[in-house]
Amino acid sequence: ASSVVAKLQSRIRAVETATQHVATHPSVYYELDKTLYTVGHGSFMDSLITMAGGANVAGSIQNPYPQLSSEKLLTANPSFIILGDAAYGISAAQVAARPGWSIITAIKLHHIYPFNDDLASRPGPRIVDGLEKLAHILHPEAFH
Length: 144
Description:
Layout (H helix, E strand, L loop, with lengths): L1 H18 L7 E5 L12 H8 L3 E2 L13 H7 L3 E4 L8 H5 L8 H4 L3 E3 L11 H13 L6
């Protein structure tokens, strides 16, 4: 067990080192479902977004799983949209086609990414896999 923990901690440090000096911390909307449930302060995913060099648009909400209004999301104008609901049939094309969402930076830049929610929704070693995947999405330049 000690060996496994040490390897996981090493992988976490590698991500933190890679993202430590990134020029920007892009805003991230993590979608749990199409009714705009997301992750707020105190959730695993909120921590992963921060560790991966991002800024969670709902990170200041003191509820780990809040529901945003469309207006709040449009005002937040995330640079990235991460689809934790991709396994349930939600696609980047569907998100981009939502009424009014064409003004969101993530839509304009095609920064909409499916994400395996199993990597971030339960405590355990696979959270490190989720951290690495998210960091590569947000800061691919940090891993060359």
